[in-house]
Structures are given as C-alpha cells and as structure tokens.
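Why do we bother with holo predictions? Because pocket geometry can differ from the apo form. Keep that in mind while you read this record for phenylalanine.
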Amino acid sequence: MSRDSFGSRFGALVAMAGSAVGLGNLWRFPYLVGENGGAAFIIIYILLSFIICLPIFISEFVIGRRSQKNAFAAFRDLSGGSAWRWVGLFTIIVPLVVLSYYSVIGGWSVEYLLKSVSFSFTGEASQSVFHSMFTDFVSSTWAPLIAHTAFLLVTTLIVIVGIKDGIEKFSKVMMPLLFFIVVAIAIYSMTLPGASAGLDYLFNPDFSKITGKAIAAALGQAFFSLSLGFGTIMTYASYVSKKENIMFQSAATAVSDLMFALIAGMAIMPAVFAFGLNPQSGPGLVFETLPFVFGQMPAGGVVAILFFLALLVAALTSSISMLEVAVAYLVEEKKFSRLWACVVLFAVCWVVGAICSLSFGPLSDIKIDGGNIFDFFDNLSSNILMTLGSLLTVLFVGWRLKKTDVYDEFTNGGTLSRNARLFGVLWFLIRYVCPLAIAAIFISGLL
Ligand code: PHE
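The structure, written out:
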C-alpha cells in the first residue's frame, strides 16, 4: 500500500500551520507576554523564532522529507541504524505526554464553548464569580474528565480518517475560519474605548524585565508554539511532496504562527485593558478574565462563542499533529492498522490525561516540585524535553547527516537557486549558533 500524503501545497501548509497555531498562541503567549515585560518579550521572541527556531524547523523538515518515514525510522535510517534511533523514539513518546495534558485544556475549551453558547458569561458584576466558576469546574471530578474525553475522541476520529482526507481536509476548513475569527475579535477589541492601553502594553517595550529567565521562557514558548523538539514537524514533513520548497513552507509556517500570536494578543489585551483589568493573571487570563470581559462588552455573548470556538479549533489542529507522530510509528514499524493504532493511543493518552485532569481536584495534594501533576508535565515538556529534542535534532542534522545530503534536500537537488544561496548561512546556524544558543539559554534559565 502506498503511503498517504498531503494532496496539495496549500493543504500541507495549513496542516503545518495548524499544528503550530494552537493553545500556545491563544492561551500561553498572551499571558507570558504579560508576565515578562510586554513588548520587550515580544522582540526577544521574534528574534529567537527566526534565528534559532526557524533553522530547527528546517532541520526537522529535512529529516522528515528526506526519509519519508515516521520519526523513529527517520532517525534510524538516516543515521545508518546507530544509537540515534533512540532519539527517534524519544520524539515519539514526548508528543504523547504533551497530548495527554493538552487535551485536558482542550477539554476546558469544549466546556467554555458550551458555557458561552448558553450565554453563561453575561451580566455578572464581579470578576470573582468567574474565578470560582473556573476553579469549581477544574477541581471537580467528572465534568473536566468528560470534556477531556470528548476532545481526545474528536482528535482521534480525525486522525483515524488519515492524512489527506482527515488531517488535511480538517485543517483546510478550520484554519481560514480560525484566522477570520481571531482577526474579527482583534478588530472589535481594538475599537473598544480605552483599548489603546492594551496596545501600549503589547508594543511599548520595558527592557528592565528581560532577564535570563525571561529569555528562556521566550525560547521555550517559541519551541512550543512552533511544535518543535519532537516528531511532529518531522512526521508532517514526511507527507510533503519532494517538489515543495522547504524554505518557503517553513518560513510561511513560522510567519503565520507569529501572526496568530500577535493577533491573539491584540484580541485579548486591548479588551482586558478597556475594562481596567490586570493582564498578568497567568493561565486564568483566558478562562477567568476573558469571560468577565465578554460579560461586560456589547455583543460580548457572541464574541465569547467565537473566541472559545477559535480556541477549540486551534487546539484540535495541534492535537491531531501530536497524535499522528505515534500513529505513523505504530502503523509503519509495528504493523498496526491505523484504526487500532488510534484506539490504543487514545487509551494511553486518556489515562495520562485523566491523571492530569484530576490533579486539579481529587489528586491536587500530590505535588511535584511545588506544582501539581499537570504543571509538572507542562513544565517538563515545554521547558526541558522540547529543548532537549530541539538540541538533539540540530546536532543530528548539523553533525551527523552529510552536508551534501542536507544541501540536496534543502535545495531539491540543487534546483532551487535561492535556497542554494541561503544554505551557507543556514548551515552555520544549524551547526554552531543553534546548539550553543539553546544550551546557553537553557542554562541561564536554570540559574
Ligand atoms: N504548537 C502547538 C501550540 O502552539 C502545540 C504543539 C506542541 C503542537 C508540540 C504539536 C507539538 O499550541
């Protein structure tokens, strides 16, 4: 049976952008900006995205498309069967961990979409109502578990259908929808009286807030947002046609991801400031502050529905990419049928996700390193495992693969002259700048 693949350039692009644009953009980016000095953080984030993360993205792309295999087989075959294959296995297991807790937050967005459809956010006079609404919900046992199950089930159903008919079709419809919704909310939010304070906050830098920790947080966020450090981009790239231009596809994904993050910031911050609220409210920003804001603004009921729909769609186009990594592995290496692979992985992620979900309620007494189990998985994967995965990926491409092979893949056999001209810079970044910068930033974040 021939291997499934993306059917068109646009399809491949929206699927990759779909993987990148997710809760990271709508949920994490705005509050990290809030915690780390507004515009100064954004500037660092943009620099890191293009100087460090784009070369890593391209490295993953090269590995995936060169091998046209799942992540494990890609590392194994391209390294001639050496110990690098264990890195391949690492890149398959980590997205499953992320998917497990990601689908808990995905579940929250299902719940909040339902709440907004029943217009639960209107007319409340105080913000504390929303604080208790959120904490009551996440600390209960069943409601978040059911929402988590629903989210993971939809993810699994899309992946069961396959690459071209499932992942690609879904992304083709949902990504443009997502774009229009987020832009529409941003425009609306910026026209609210008092909104300019939010824009100031986003775009007036305060460099005194830029510490080693803030830079490490920006890098961690850039990895997370571009889905780097595990097999996701690699796996999607393995379904991309040999005719496509790796530079174009990678840059287009990075630019769309950045645009979405900035537009999400412009949708959220002006509205928050317009109602005199504090943006630095951590993860509660989206689930506590915003519902209050929606309750206050004219036509807020409709805006709330659109916002939580966007959040859900963004989360789904990312979660499917995480699941596909391990599905490709089980189907190609372990000869599972696609259906059976999906069922098994659903079960695994459901159990791990359920533990994360319960860690806000019945299991909240279990603390690891001061946080609950959910925080532990989130920190571990975005701050440590993604960094490690990205470091190993650039080391693999820069030091293990042959330069001529990387050149050949990046330039489509020497036929793309612009890529050929850029290759020298790219190679230097992959070989020296990325590994050193990742290591330095990682260590400074620990200090
Ligand atoms: N990039 C996604 C987001 O921003 C998260 C993600 C991480 C997706 C890793 C795939 C792999 O939400």
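Residues 9-446 form a domain with the Hydantoin permease fold (CATH 1.10.4160.10).
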